[in-house]
Amino acid sequence: MDTLLYPLEWVVANIVVIWHQIWSFIGLDPASGVTWALAIVGLVVTIRAALIPLFVKQIKASRAMQMIAPDLKKVQDKYKGKKDQASREAMSRETMELYAKHKTNPFASCLPMLVQAPIFFALFRVLNYNLGGDNGPIGLLSQELIDQARDATLLGAHLSETFFNSEGMSAKIVSALLIVAMVATTFITQHQLTRKNLPASALEGPMAQQQKILMYALPFIFVITGPNFPVGVLIYWTTTNLWTLGQQWYVIRNNPTPGSEAERIHKERLAAKAAKRAERRGEDPTAVIEAEAVVEEETKRSGQRQQPKRKNRGGSKPQALPADDTKDES
User: Fold this and answer.
1) What residue ranges in 142-271 does DSSP mark as E strands?
2) Which residues pair with 157 in a beta bridge?
């Protein structure tokens, strides 16, 4: 494990030190716990910015999985109770055909979490064994910086302390607050994804029940495991949850799932903006809204933005064509 994670620990330590130097250059106290905490926040910003393409893929995959849930249930019901090899192969084939048709699979929605897991453990080890132990320097994290970070406190808590492994109450209070924040942001993120961005049909069935269980089980897991995490790791996890929440809110607000509550709100917002624009131009708001709705549907199908055709102001009729002068007068 040491050999496998060392390159990632080296990268994590270097990113934290670089952000620490940035904050110190801005004017923050290098020995302050706030500066080191913000360096961990900088680590989150760096990692999550690099994972934006994977996050977009995760959103699309999760959305597609929910959309095909009714079709998956039909396939499962079709072969329910059939244990023979041919039936199992047919069910597997039809399931894979559904995934291929909608360009998704159950694992795509887990990509960002799977990628972040090694980073999470690498930071855990840097805080536990470099700052809190005797592993010594790593990368740009010199012994001088290790001693500085080890002595730094955030509201009285050291970054390497955990809820259980701390002497005073300060670390326990800070850990407890961060665990509450981590659990709350995890729940809100899951609720936002499953309740606001899915059509009514996707909120029923086995997959919807699994999502509901996950929405409550995941925060509960953090309640159990959180007290074993160092304060620095809790800062990292809470910050990455806040990033996910904000990023997910932006995607859902601007590109909601068809048929979801988020799409209804999105259309109402677009209609209100179109009505205001039409009012400023002196045009018929209803006609403009209808025209832009048609353009939006065409855009979704073609993938290219088209400009709506504006109608003549004041409802004026088009000019009559001039008479043909080539005719002989009688």
Assistant:
1) 153-154, 157-158
2) 154
Q: Report the amino acid identity of residue 36.
A: W
Tell me the C-alpha distance between 191 and 249, whole Å.
Answer: 11
What pTM, to 2 d.p., does this model score?
Answer: 0.71
Q: How many angstroms separate the CA atoms of 165 and 161, rounded? A: 6
Q: How many residues are there in the chain?
A: 330
Sign of the Cα torsion 235, 236, 237, 241 reads positive
The answer to whether 143 touches 190, Cβ cutoff 8 Å, is no
What digits encode the pLDDT tens for the residues 79-130? 787 777 887 888 888 888 887 777 777 666 666 677 778 887 888 888 877 7
- List pLDDT tens digits, range 178-198: 999 998 988 888 777 776 666
- The structure tokens 């961990």 sit at 40
Distance CA 151, CA 163 (A): 18
Per-residue pLDDT band at 200 (split at 50, 70, 90): low
What are 199's strand-pairing partners? 260
Which are the contacts of 294, defined by CB distance < 8 A and separation ≥ 6? 308
